[in-house]
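Incident log, support desk, overnight shift.

02:14 A customer reports that sequence design results differ from what the structure should imply. Their input is reproduced verbatim below. On-call engineer (initials T.W.) acknowledged and began investigating.
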């Protein structure tokens, strides 16, 4: 598609054509750059794309003295407190007068909220008062977190809370069709489109695999490395991962575990995986090398709405064993590029892993299929879809002059 055509949208018959450069987006995030995760990296990429297209973007998010990375765009700090039990994350509390004045002076024509926190609630109220369209992006399945902290009884309450929040928005974007379907079934909103995720093929590709790097972490050339990639927090399915590895070990299947990531549950995870190679947080080219140096990715999480780690592993030509849940279901084709297993089915996970450990031909065939699938995910094309959604909402609800 022609790039000029791709970014143009007609506001209505007889009205001037509006394009991406005319957008003024106020973006509200609970974590834009102070802790690195897939959601905020996607938001920063989106902001970069919009700025490159000539749009104005202003971000409102909690800030810390030493963030994980520099923000893309103008970042305005909002007041926040550490979340109890998860002090690395902060809860935005309210929009003080100074921030409201900044928001008014910026004069957005669309508001984007990316987390259902108190500040985003205020932002939605502000936008509705000024008859501005609101787009909400869904990045994680918050309601599922309670399962990992012995509070499953609270899941319906959280789902009701989320429904109230998302129904006040004009539209939602979800990172996968499987997640969009979940949101429809939960009656979160009736206007839901896809904002997928891209992968940087210069960073994630099979050519950056390094036997020297593997050896430096105690992984022999002939050992099959089963990888985990992500923040080390319980909601990533660390218990299912470690139980499945235990089951594989009891079957007498030789393997090595490679863990990429940091988080508050690292000590617990290390105690459950004796002999595993924990390489800590990796970024950029180092991350690409670490992922490509696995032999299979094991992702048992059910909280992802897309599964960035799954796509990154596929781009490195790795087969993926994943929970049959939102995100992974939209990426992995069962028995073609990996295995999709019922969430929590430890023994089935172990058997799927065993197949890849014992068959180089299966690893190669499914890894190649995954790499072909990863070629579909271009960041510019994906972020252009969000810009088109903004334009559609502005056309439908032009707001006050």
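02:41 Re-run completed on a clean worker. Output:
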């Amino acid at each position: 598609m022609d790039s000029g055509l791709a970014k143009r949208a007609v506001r209505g018959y007889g009205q001037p054509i509006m394009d991406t450069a005319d957008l003024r987006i106020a973006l509200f995030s609970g974590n834009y750059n102070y802790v690195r995760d897939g959601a905020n990296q996607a938001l920063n990429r989106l902001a970069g794309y919009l700025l490159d297209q000539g749009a104005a973007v202003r971000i409102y998010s909690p800030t810390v003295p030493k963030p994980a990375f520099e923000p893309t765009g103008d970042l305005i700090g909002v007041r926040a407190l550490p979340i109890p039990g998860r002090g690395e994350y902060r809860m935005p509390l309210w929009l003080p007068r100074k921030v409201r004045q900044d928001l008014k002076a910026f004069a957005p024509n669309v508001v984007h909220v990316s987390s259902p926190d108190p500040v985003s609630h205020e932002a939605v109220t502000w936008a509705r008062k000024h008859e501005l369209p609101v787009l909400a992006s869904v990045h994680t399945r918050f309601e599922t977190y309670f399962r990992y902290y012995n509070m499953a009884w609270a899941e319906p309450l959280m789902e009701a809370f989320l429904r109230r929040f998302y129904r006040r928005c004009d539209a939602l974007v979800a990172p996968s069709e499987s997640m969009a379907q979940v949101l429809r079934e939960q009656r979160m909103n009736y206007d839901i489109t896809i904002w997928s995720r891209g992968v940087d093929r210069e960073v994630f590709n099979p050519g950056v695999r390094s036997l020297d790097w593997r050896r430096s972490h105690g992984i022999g050339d002939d050992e099959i490395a089963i990888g985990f990639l992500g923040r080390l927090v319980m909601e990533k399915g660390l218990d299912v991962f470690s139980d499945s590895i235990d089951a594989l070990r009891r079957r007498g299947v030789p393997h090595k575990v490679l863990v990429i990531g940091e988080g508050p549950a690292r000590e617990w995870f290390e105690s459950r995986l004796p002999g595993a190679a924990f390489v800590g947080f990796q970024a950029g080219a180092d991350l690409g090398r670490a992922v490509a140096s696995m032999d299979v990715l094991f992702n048992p999480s059910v909280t992802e709405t897309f599964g960035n780690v799954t796509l990154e592993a596929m781009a490195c030509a790795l087969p993926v064993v994943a929970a049959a849940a939102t995100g992974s279901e939209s990426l992995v084709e069962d028995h073609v590029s990996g295995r999709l297993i019922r969430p929590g089915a430890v023994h089935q996970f172990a058997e799927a892993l065993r197949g890849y450990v014992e068959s180089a031909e299966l690893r190669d065939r499914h890894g190649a299929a995954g790499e072909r699938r990863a070629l579909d995910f271009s960041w510019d094309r994906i972020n252009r879809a969000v810009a088109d959604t903004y334009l559609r909402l502005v056309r439908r609800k032009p707001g006050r002059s």
